[in-house]
Amino acid sequence: MSFRDYAPAPESTAILNLRPHYGLYIDGQWTEGGGGSITSISPATEKSIAEISMADSSDIDRAVLAARKSYDTVWSRMSGAERGKYLYRIARLIQERAREFAVAETLDNGKPIRETRDIDIPLVAAWFFHYAGWADKLDYAGLGPNPSALGVAGQIIPWNFPLLMLAWKVAPALAAGNTVVLKPAETTPLTALMFADICQQAGLPAGVVNIVPGHGGVAGTALVEHAGVNKIAFTGSTAVGRNIARTLAGTETRVTLELGGKGANIVFDDAAVDEAVEGIIAGIFFNQGHVCCAGSRLLVQENIQDEVVEKLTRRLATLRLGDPLDKNTDIGAVNSKAQLARITAIAETGEAEGATRWTLDCEIPSKGFWFRPTIFTNVTTSNTVARDEIFGPVLSVLSFRTPDEAIIKANNTPYGLSAGIWTQNASRMLRVADSLRAGVVWANTFNQFDPTSPFGGYKESGYGREGGRHGLAAYLANGGAR
Ligand code: NAP
Ligand code: MG
């Protein structure tokens, strides 16, 4: 008998009302795509969840035309207050069905139910509430006189926070008066399709939101290249983001890109060490490390390195990996076989290049895609694990002696999305934060998200901001930054 036998029963999937087959949601109707179909599976069990129709380029064309028509005839003529009412309605419907969304997201993505229940889905509702409140206040957003919508927004999202990434993109776009064509990631289309039902339930006019699952190289490319799209918002890999920027260079289409990261968590010797250890663990192991702003590099002041490493490895040993639907699970499944292969390959370079590997000693379920949480110590700045984005539960520990050295090392990356600073010294906190080239810097905490806060990158982490009034600017014609 192990401790786990006393664990409460997993969250029930009985509350789900999934259909065996999902089409595309275009112009307020369910329709079949021309790009074949795929089976969405649970990465924790490899069992199929539903069959999903895939869009081809003619479906993308239909979706963009529907979005254009609803923009011209309905949405752009509606008052902000009326648009806001729809967004409030959507937010409330998500709250009402929050448990169902949490279970579906966990099933499709593999992340722990504790996260979808307490973080992902509550934040989705919060995002819609926040932007609902902006819809009739665009004139007060400080974004210039008579802010106006761009038109049709094409949105391409990744698999790591499927519904939350949808919310980050759809809520501000609609509040600002745009209509939307959204392509979810291939491995996690489910909650976006459930969201289409929410739009229908909310009575959102046909064509305002169109959801088009499809292959990135087919549907994604067609959306990016479509001349009827006024703005592309993309979150995903730096490689694809760069391609999109290249395709759209010199065109009228506006672009925002939210790409990879290699965030530094910087721990000074005056930090509250136990709190810092919790923050470091959460910073890298939240969502199996499938987080663009993950704190994947730990920079610890040399004189407390042994203490921090000792506490970290002890904490690592207490993590519970397993059934993501179990409320006690800390580490769920890796989202796909391909991502597992990527993580495995990069992690293998760690030991080969001389780092010391610490791994959670645990059983791995016989089915599904799993990676044991891992910490590398004795890492140097030239090691692959310290340089490449792993996008998995792998932490690299480096050390520094002075604040200046910490700043240089933290900035020594082509990315610039996130950083964390742990110190009790307020002036040092502010000076270091000011010197970091990262879109978000957390102070004595990590991975906190709020709809009022702008989020986005420097350097190869992309450009543009999502969240707060900055996020609105990205969907307004005179909103400033491209
Ligand atoms: P990805 O290929 O960039 O996928 C992100 C989204 O873009 C998906 O919806 C994808 O569709 C779509 N897409 C793929 N190729 C496209 C193209 N040529 N044109 C337009 N859209 C396209 O990322 P991934 O392969 O899932 O993950 C690879 C790596 O990207 C990860 O290891 C991680 O380093 C990084 N990543 C970063 C984030 C982030 O939040 N910044 C999120 C996810 C991944 P399909 O699903 O059909 O491929
Ligand atoms: Mg899936």
Which structural traits does this protein have?
2 domains, 15 helices, Aldehyde Dehydrogenase, Chain A, domain 2, alpha/beta, single chain, binds NADP nicotinamide-adenine-dinucleotide phosphate, 6-stranded mixed β-sheet, 16% strand, 482 residues
Top-tier CATH class of the largest domain: Alpha Beta
Named CATH topology of the largest domain: Aldehyde Dehydrogenase, Chain A, domain 1
Structural class computed from helices and strand pairing = alpha/beta
**Envelope shape:** globular
**Helix share, percent:** 25-40%
Count of separate structural domains: 2
In DSSP terms (H or I, runs of 4 or more residues), the helix count works out at 15
What is the arithmetic mean of pLDDT?
Answer: 95
- Largest sheet report: 7 strands, mixed
> Which regions have little confidence, pLDDT < 50, spanning 5+ residues?
none
CATH homologous superfamily (4th level) name of the largest domain: Aldehyde Dehydrogenase, Chain A, domain 1
Are any ligands bound, and if so which?
Answer: NADP nicotinamide-adenine-dinucleotide phosphate, magnesium ion
Q: Quote the beta fraction.
A: 15-25%
Strand arrangement within the widest β-sheet reads 13-14-15-12-11-16-17
